[in-house]
């Protein structure tokens, strides 16, 4: 059992920590409609439009979570010179997050994930389809150079780096090399969440894959905890990382330490979740901020587990505040099994 007093002291220490968030900045768009009737044109439901909402997604959501937890978020990424990019910048401003490290690229699309949500005002709104607008997964040389300069500038006073790779090409090999070199000079943590290509981020301090990603990387089905540990060790060695925090859905998390044990953590709170959208961003944000604040890896993993448990009880892309995190710490005993 983790002493709650110690964990709450760590949360208080989040304030003042500077986290550089490098990755794919995404606009999460929600279109809400109330079911009206069946279309005569095709066997599909017609929704009467009621509302539209845009939230920060991808690396932008990770930065938002860092800020919500009380630390200073310094995002580095690229947005298109389009309306979606304007909305992301507006949301950053409203959240009190600096946009100095963000470049605009003419001719490049800002990634937008549009979710069509059906439901009445007093009923649960259900996602019925998602439409993604995606840029080409490459960067012009001048844009890449600006991102490298932004990493170096923001990183000069950083306590940690968070890399959020959604496969849209922002974190090129040269950009990641700049992250590693800058972090090494600072003695700063580098945590990585990569949706499709984790092996290319070799040398990061920590990574936060889910079970299917570990299965793919290790080439083995994770049938039980012993197999999971063996596969996780393979991935740790491949990444040359110190920590691997594996998210396991309803089975909680597993933390593997290169020079230590594996710790299995049960899911925090209820397994009757509301929405998993963006939960991985919350997990890596809490884990990174906690490590930057001096938490032991197992303490940081538990705080990330609790934060993720809070986030999935909210609808849509969400953040977690220090107050919510503190209030949730004792809900299920803050116990972990080694």
Protein described:
The protein is an alpha/beta fold and 338 residues long. The chain has ten helices and 13 strands. It has helices at 4-12, 59-68, 83-95, 141-155, 173-186, 211-218, 225-239, 279-292, 297-311, 322-328; strands spanning 18-23, 25-38, 45-58, 72-80, 102-105, 112-118, 126-133, 160-165, 189-194, 206-207, 243-247, 253-257, 262-265. The strands form two sheets. Strands 5-4-1-8-9-10-11-12-13 form a nine-stranded mixed sheet, with helices on both faces. A four-stranded mixed sheet has the order 3-2-6-7. β6 and β7 (126-133) form a beta hairpin. The N and C termini lie close together (10 Å).
Task: Pick out its properties.
disordered C terminus, four-stranded mixed β-sheet, 36% helix, UDP-N-acetylmuramoyl-L-alanine:D-glutamate ligase, nine-stranded mixed β-sheet, 338 residues, 10 helices, alpha/beta
Q: Into which percent range does the helicity of residues fall? A: 25-40%
Instruction: Let me know the CATH homologous superfamily.
Output: Ribokinase
Number of strands: 13
**For the report, how would you describe the main beta sheet?**
9 strands, mixed
The level-1 CATH class: Alpha Beta
Poorly predicted runs are: 333-338
Counted by DSSP, the helix tally is: 10
Q: For the terminal residues, how far apart are their CA atoms?
A: 10 Å
Radius of gyration (Å)? 20 Å
| CATH 2nd-level architecture | 3-Layer(aba) Sandwich
CATH topology: UDP-N-acetylmuramoyl-L-alanine:D-glutamate ligase
Strand order of the largest sheet: 5-4-1-8-9-10-11-12-13
- Global morphology: globular
Residue fraction in strands: 25-35%
- Domain module tally: 1
Structural class: alpha/beta
